[in-house]
């Protein structure tokens, strides 16, 4: 209550005095444990060479799946934090291909210094997975490693379980995919950057739509079988409707949404934005949806069909993805130091590091709630899906104002 508020005020005021008296550690403590942990990450990532340490370990790193902004930031953070602890990071090029062929290299902090700002994947990513057929080729590479960290999505999860059969090591999967479909985490590296890329592109399209008058744009977005990007960009951009795999659309819903766009046009909003996930329906694809809207709105608006494509995977990682990458790497390393004292490892030691709410958790891959066939988390764990009902609310047309009894006049802005 009030006493707690006064206590917080007193602590805030005391920070000034602590700075004056140069009591830096005490001032830092008043900012809370999260702030102190971030300071610690900054100090670890400031190293430019491997620091002297009583022990030396080697961590293997590879990227399995499609490239995602933030992978480079995560690898850089791992290299830096490992160097701080006197350890090295060995990267395997082109994902599983490098693990099979032995195409690898120990990366120094100096070599990856600029990686944090670069999109894509500097060491190469591949969708090829580790299977029972090729697992024999990777055994030799594992002998020199003390742990393995895999960046990626579902391909990384499946590969980690197969790898555990022959690798008596701690194995970590760091979520890295623009689709944000990794179970065990609310966020994956790359999804924020992709969302920013989509919003940037759609904002430009909206300007075109508003300037040319009475145009409706049907936009296809990436995301695989996960509608995260479609829903979140729909909210951010003011879409009139979104179509996602989690809520399969019916033909009558498409017609109803087209009618709503017509209503908006009549009320003075001369543009429409419809977003659909690439796998929202096996039959109602972009061409079909565009044709339906064109038919329903014939003479009232024109329709343009757009597929945003791979620009969603591009761009430099956003500040959020860069910071999240450093946080993932730090958490992995702190957990790794605890696990390395174990005498043996099982499938329970293959974990996904994820952020759930405000907590960072390590979930064994064997306990993840997921639909393996569709490669998505179970619907009950999709917290972002609760935001979808906001879209029709936020896209409501302006009301018509009655200036005289029984007379509808101009639209109120």
Question: What does this protein look like?
Answer:
It is a single chain. The longest helix has 22 residues, at 191-212. A hairpin with a 2-residue loop joins strand 11 (350-356) and strand 12. The strands form 4 sheets. Strands 1, 2, 3, 4, 5, 6, 11 and 12 form an 8-stranded mixed β-sheet that branches. The chain has a 4-stranded parallel β-sheet with strand order 8-9-7-10, with helices on both faces. It is α/β, with parallel strands linked by helices and 413 residues long. Helices cover 39% and strands 19% of the residues. The two termini are 42 Å apart.
SSE map:
Elements: H1 2-20, H2 24-29, H3 33-44, E1 58-64, H4 71-84, E2 88-92, H5 96-101, E3 104-107, E4 125-126, H6 135-142, E5 147-152, H7 154-163, E6 171-175, H8 191-212, E7 215-221, H9 228-237, E8 241-243, H10 251-266, E9 271-277, H11 286-296, E10 302-307, H12 319-339, E11 350-356, E12 359-364, E13 370-371, E14 376-377, H13 390-394, E15 400-404, E16 407-411
Helix pairs in contact: 4-12, 8-9, 10-11
